[in-house]
Please model this.
Amino acid sequence: MKIKGLRWWIIGLIMIITIINYLDRGTLNYMWVANIEYQLVDEIKIDSKENQAQFMAKDSTYLLVSKRGEKIVQKAALVNFKDDGQIVVNRQGIAYELGIVDKDASPEEASRQAKEQLGIITIFFMIAYGFSQLFSGKLYDRIGTRRGFVTSVLVWGLADALTSLAQGKVSLTGFRMMLGLGEAGPWPGATKSNAEWFPQKERAFAQGLFGAAASIGSILAPIVILSLYMSIGWKMTFVVVGVLGISWLVPWLIINTKGPKEHKWITEEEREYIVSNQPESKVTNEVGKTWGELLANRKNYSVILGRFFLDPIWWMFVTFLPMYLVEEFNLNIKELAFSAWVPYLGAMIGSISGGWFSGYLIRNGATVDRARKVAMLLGGAIIVPSVIASVMVPNATLAVILMAFVLGGFQFTMTNLQTLPSDLHGGKSVGSLAGLGGASAVLGTILAILFAGQISSWPLLFGLLAALVPLSLLSVFLTVGKIEQIK
Model:
């Protein structure tokens, strides 16, 4: 049996698991804090299909009963109201249910605690994620992308499902660290897979598809996760999303049996098209470079430093955007579900167009060096004014639209930055350099989250992200010189 365009099947599977990856990592952030609305009633009705709130005059509290039958007793002073007092709005979520945020704290203090504790948990996640980035690249170079993805997906799928057993901050942090160990692998893994399955002129586009899948996952996350949360609760949401990744292993193991040089299902035309347009395929007896060898060459710091400064932009949005929209614009859970996806639509468009754009320049005679640099500059020129404008607008609609331009420009640049490891090295070192870049990105993100804890103003925090763009681009341009294979 022969399959035309087998390389597109491979990147398609990687896109699917990347979407699932972002559903998994978004579970905590979207269920951490949420504004839940309850219909005010004179008496709670059993088996009602809506959330109900009953005022208890004896102790000045509200009995809040969800449509699933879950009950909460909340002080009257800690709830808000809508529709002339007919809708009771209570702030709840995992942070409150696990006692990580003091349920009796004032709204301002509860907000501070929620932000601080989510930041701490995310830092531990990022430490595990960075450690995994560092060693996953080496692992994928050693055991190959097929078994590498299997290892990563098993670890993170089980981690997300097991999070349903969390009893407090310590166990929740432990499960999130396990999630980070698994979830980092596909980033160096996808870069390595694209270097194996695509000719050089198509790699940025393939990387763009991979980045677009991350954006699609982020688009779907608020809708899917918050819908599941409202329907089955946070514990079963973790289980359902975790099982999705493990189920993906079946088609992956069936289709991705060998690389393009040996795969029985690839056509001879496609095999020749891929291999003949890979500059590293002309290198014989290639030996993978050690970390020391990679760190000794200045060109490699274009990836390491470029991602150190640029990646925090993405992670600050992924981590804090739900809380920002809830607190700055007072969105309820449904409004959040149908607003938070908009910036990631821009990211998806930017990811695909960024990869297509540099490929277009190459097809029309530009060198790889010129194509990648022009694309990164263009993406940076989109990010900076969009960030500044997004924190100055007065309503959530304009804010999320402008944030779509921010993340669109980010992915336009990042797609080309993430392609640099395969532009600079042969297959046996691509994953290792991508892993070093990923680890440096994690370090930059951890520092950014620690810095965020010192800033109480959400607009100021997001606005300061604009300064990271020129730092990233300068570090790339000053270190890489000409983008070409390192001899």
Notes: The mean pLDDT is 91.
